[in-house]
Inverse folding.
């Protein structure tokens, strides 16, 4: 196995045991980027010399006995919403053409402190306001969408162009591209990972989280990044926690909620079959399946849009009025639509969220987690605007992709997307596990146990 093919956990162990040097790993990943990037367009910028310099420093530190932990010497990418001192945070927009970050975001600083090696900034849908990342191609089929808005991060990890990456998630933007590219994506509890230095889409819905090749890898990154930061008003005062799951696969006593409503409505049959098969595997590992009804389903879309649209417009108010021509048309239309929403609309959405939080808390007292599809369909072809379901219902692609992921943003509960197979065309399918606030360990334990029973996944191999 070539170094770029190693998942984070395996690479970290090889580095710790002096069987692999950070320089060898960085060179392997950079060579992979040089080979794959022209076809996939996962990166905005790749700082190869900076990467090599950091890898040499990591190698020297480790040789001198200054090993910082499992992220030390590991090459990674960060979504181009996340500030890294001295580099541009373009957010995929001409509005930010002359931007340079003056300091590190909290998550970038914590990665640097852990010894991780930055490869570069990954592509995003403009200001994260979309579900496709149109400039990036799917890692399994370049004629299909990458998913968004963290499409660059997901494709980089799926194709071996980063050992792990960071994304952001406002309505599914970590989990959607992770599912569509066959990797693991974790949206933590709202406030668990600080957002200081991260460009906002919607203050009350935004999350930062890892995209990795395995569930154990996601746990390693979460352990390094979680913790309070007073510069983020939403940051939770949580103690340091080791999120790494144990090696066992016994899920006896775990109650897994299987939705009777919402999550399997208007879902591709191959997606449904793969997710239900994965749920059956959780049961085979000892979990007890419990049917649950998802509350307030008719209000989910209106609540999500009622919160996100006015908050996004408020963030962009100044530039929307001074340089509207610099926005892409799809994003500008959404931002202008936010100016037409009333304070009453926004307050009703907040009230709906409060009621939804109460109802989801009730459901999650009955079960330890809920298992459901991450997205209702695999990656559509680039340029496809709608999906037609078996009953004739026509749904916009972005509406379809956000439909099953947005409840976790509205409520702030953690959600983990895990690959659970492929459709007949060879495109990845994802299952999401949703849990109680600050119960990431439960999701990671279940996801890891499932993963341990499956064959090792190959990297995406674009012809």
């Amino acid at each position: 196995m070539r170094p770029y093919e190693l998942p984070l956990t395996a690479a970290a162990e090889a580095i710790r045991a002096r069987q692999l040097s950070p320089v060898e790993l960085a060179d392997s990943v950079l060579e992979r980027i040089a080979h794959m990037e022209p076809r996939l367009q996962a990166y905005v910028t790749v700082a190869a010399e900076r990467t090599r310099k950091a890898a040499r420093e990591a190698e020297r530190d480790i040789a001198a006995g200054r090993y910082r932990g499992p992220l030390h010497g590991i090459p990674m990418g960060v979504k181009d919403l996340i500030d890294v001192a001295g580099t541009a945070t373009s957010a995929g927009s001409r509005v930010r053409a002359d931007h340079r970050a003056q300091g590190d975001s909290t998550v970038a600083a914590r990665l640097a402190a852990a010894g991780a090696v930055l490869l570069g900034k990954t592509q995003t849908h403009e200001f994260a306001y979309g579900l496709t990342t149109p400039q990036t191609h799917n890692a399994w089929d370049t004629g299909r969408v990458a998913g968004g808005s963290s499409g660059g991060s997901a494709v980089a990890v799926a194709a071996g162009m980063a050992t792990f990456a960071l994304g952001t998630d406002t309505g599914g933007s970590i989990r959607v591209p992770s599912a569509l590219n066959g990797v693991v994506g974790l949206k933590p509890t709202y406030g668990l990972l600080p957002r200081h230095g991260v460009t906002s889409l919607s203050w009350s819905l935004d999350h930062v989280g890892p995209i990795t090749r395995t569930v154990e890898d996601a746990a390693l990154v979460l352990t390094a990044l979680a913790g309070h930061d007073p510069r983020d008003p939403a940051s939770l005062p949580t103690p340091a926690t080791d999120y790494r799951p144990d090696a066992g696969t016994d899920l006896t006593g775990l109650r897994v909620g299987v939705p009777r409503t919402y999550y399997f409505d208007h879902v591709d049959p191959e997606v449904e079959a793969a997710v239900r098969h994965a749920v059956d595997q959780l049961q085979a590992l000892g979990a007890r399946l419990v049917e649950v009804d998802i509350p307030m389903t008719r209000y989910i879309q209106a609540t999500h849009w009622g919160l996100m649209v006015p908050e996004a417009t408020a963030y962009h108010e100044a530039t929307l009025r001074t340089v509207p021509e610099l926005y892409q048309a799809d994003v500008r239309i959404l931002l202008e639509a936010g100016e037409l929403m009333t304070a009453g609309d926004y307050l009703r959405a907040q009230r709906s969220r409060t009621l939804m939080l109460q109802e989801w808390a009730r459901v999650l007292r009955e079960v330890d987690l809920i298992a459901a599809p991450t997205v209702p369909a695999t990656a559509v072809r680039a340029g496809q605007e709608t999906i037609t379901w078996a009953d004739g219902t026509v749904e916009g692609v972005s509406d379809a992709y956000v439909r099953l992921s947005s409840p976790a943003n509205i409520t702030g509960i953690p959600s983990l997307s895990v690959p659970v197979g492929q459709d007949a065309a060879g495109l990845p399918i994802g299952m999401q596990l949703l849990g109680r606030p600050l119960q990431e360990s439960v999701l990671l334990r279940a996801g890891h146990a499932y993963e341990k029973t499956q064959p090792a996944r190959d990297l995406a191999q674009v012809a």
In short: Residues 3-299+343-452 form a domain with the Amidase signature (AS) enzymes fold (CATH 3.90.1300.10). The longest helix spans residues 343-366. The mean pLDDT is 97. The longest strand covers residues 415-422.
